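Box S1 | Example of a co-folding query
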Amino acid sequence: MGLFAYLKDKFRKKDNSSDKETKLYDDGLKKQRNELSSKMNDLAKKAKKVNSSYFEQLEEILIEADVGVNLTLSLIEETIECAKKKKIDEPKLINELLIDALLKRYYDDSFDNHDITFRDDRCTVVLICGVNGVGKTTSIAKLGYRYQKQGKKVCFIAADTFRAAAVEQLEEFANRLNVPIVKGDNEEDPSSVIYRGLDYAISHGIDLALIDTSGRLHNKDYLMRELGKINRVIQKRIGTSADESFLVLDASTGQNGLEQAKSFLNTLPLTGLIVTKMDGTSKGGIILAINQEFHLPVRFIGLGEKMEDLTIFNLDKFLYSLLKEVE
Ligand code: GDP
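Box S1 (continued) | Returned holo structure for guanosine-5'-diphosphate
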């Protein structure tokens, strides 16, 4: 049995109707699923035989789904080789080989995901960074909501002191969730807000401190200096870098967004990615490209605007929801 057949079998056997998370993936990835599966199914139905033009069209479908050029080319190459070896030339089976190649890539990779591990000796510190507009503030609120529901004491640290609107937005969420927030005075140095915030968290027995940072990218050197300073302040206050440093990426900005976000890669010891707005794009392949480009695990995925719509990234659920309608 190929990997794709195995995945389908695994999910169909289970009664997933009561699994809230599976439903979240299913609803959130509807657009991507329609786009990718219907194109692959149409191609297989129309094709009389498999030739180089068939593979070119498959290539196009993957690139249009934002899978990324490098990954697409290597997947197609692998599929062609495997088809030759197994003497397979039926379009539907070729599609299956392609998906198997894709799945194999991700099962081989360290794409395994995990929740935030909470420390028991002091508060767990999570730093959130990313370009403006990607969904940092809302992701902080959603994380706060998630862990508050699990009984954790949460606080927000609003260190994006350059944008009054960002602080106000986080404050609104804090009020709504009844979470304490430490914020800066106008133009206060972000590092000083973080220092005060960590002091607050430690002295008030907070379990999870979520730090919002500025996403100004107009000057890369400036950004690097600023984030470097933030990292040093955290080290000074808690003895290590933040326990988790997440880079937030907006799935709907496609490959351009990824290029922009690369500036963050060398500025902080990042521990993972949060990919937001997956529900708002038809290009589901972006998550696959992200893993190839960033070599960092996707830890959380945003599948909608509601508080409960940010969830831990689960590779099986994601791939199954994305591909299950390919015949
Ligand atoms: P920031 O500038 O990075 O802090 O971005 P915000 O948190 O203000 O988010 C920008 C917009 O994206 C807001 O309108 C959010 O509601 C929206 N948003 C964030 N995450 C998601 C998501 O997963 N799905 C959808 N549909 N919208 C999202």
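Residues 130, 132-138, 166, 169, 215, 276-277, 279-280, 302, 304-305, 309 surround guanosine-5'-diphosphate (CB under 6 Å). The radius of gyration is 22 Å.
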